[in-house]
Design brief:
Layout: H1 19-57, H2 60-72
Helix pairs in contact: 1-2
Length: 74
């Protein structure tokens, strides 16, 4: 009995998508979008606070010097 080297076995795979899986995927996408938007907003707020601190203190080096003085107690 000789078996051909190029013989292929065809199988049919049945796939099904459960609606709860689709809903779960959509909820996950929405959560990722919400967290991304929140992160961007927080980043913009931090940048605005740093720029405001630089302006109020009179410059970047003055801000850094004041921060180190406040942290070290000097």
């Amino acid at each position: 009995m000789k078996v051909a080297a190029n013989e292929r076995v065809k199988t049919k795979k049945k796939t099904s998508i459960n609606t709860s899986e689709v809903v779960h995927a959509e909820v996950s996408k929405g959560a990722i979008r919400a967290l991304t938007i929140t992160g961007v907003l927080v980043g913009l707020w931090v940048a605005a606070c740093v720029v405001g601190g630089i302006v109020v203190s009179g410059g970047l080096f003055t801000l850094v010097k004041g921060w180190f003085g406040a942290v070290s107690g000097g």
